[in-house]
């Protein structure tokens, strides 16, 4: 595939293959930014690569809230095309929509990366102005989504069968292990299951307008505690 061949050449001098693929996609479609997120049955697992600050912020926001185009695309296994976020976003995603608009995002196109029923990730394309993808742009986007799925499979296939992710599939700026550790602590403190503990963590991050990683760090440092009565207030 020409897309992969070009991305591999770029990655050789510029960074990781996922990062090179996002950069190439932003030029080819074209869009304002591209993000590649790791997904599973649990939902958004974190950012793999992004072209710029706004794309990174949007991926972090979807991870923090547990809602957004990439979550829906992964859940349904179908692309989520939002050419006019101002018209449809706030109603569809009460938390994510207004925040994305405030950040200057006008349109989002999310493409699920799956093999059968196995969820790998989502390729998110962002525009700072509203507007649909032309038929040619949609075909190009789908081609990059196919290439991204192949990259995820190829990279992880090189790893030992011990559950560890390939280093190129982990954004060093996001220590998601801290989120999982904090979720476990909250589950014990608030006497809830892990799923509800993650909701409490996300809810606190959203209500306090803080990054979920920062809130998780406070939990691990024991500067923030979720007691049983917390579940009635978050």
Quick structural gist:
With 234 residues, this protein is an alpha+beta fold. 52% of the residues lie in helices and 16% in strands. The chain has two domains: 167 residues, Beta-Lactamase (2-Layer Sandwich); 57 residues, Arc Repressor Mutant, subunit A, CATH 1.10.10.
What can you tell me about this protein's structure?
The chain is α+β, with helices and mostly antiparallel strands. It folds into 2 domains: 2-168, GAF domain (Beta-Lactamase, 2-Layer Sandwich); 176-232, Arc Repressor Mutant, subunit A (Orthogonal Bundle), CATH 1.10.10. 52% of the residues lie in helices and 16% in strands.
Short key terms for the protein model shown above:
234 residues; alpha+beta; Beta-Lactamase; Arc Repressor Mutant, subunit A; 2 domains; five-stranded antiparallel sheet; 10 helices
CATH fold group of the largest domain: Beta-Lactamase
How do the helices and strands follow one another from N- to C-terminus?
HHEEHHEHHEEHHHH
Rg calculated over all Cα atoms: 18 Å
State mean pLDDT (0 to 100 scale). 84
Please describe the biggest sheet, giving its number of strands, its sense, and whether it closes into a barrel.
5 strands, antiparallel
**From the helix content, strand content and strand pairing, which structural class follows?**
alpha+beta
How many angstroms separate the termini?
A: 48 Å
Tally of DSSP helical segments: 10
Second CATH tier, the architecture of the largest domain = 2-Layer Sandwich
- Give the strand order, joined by hyphens, for the main sheet: 2-1-5-4-3
Helix content: 40-55%
Q: Which band does the percent of strand residues land in?
A: 15-25%
CATH superfamily of the largest domain: GAF domain
What's the shape? globular
Q: How many domain regions?
A: 2
- Total strands: the figure is 5
Instruction: Pick out the low-confidence regions.
Output: none
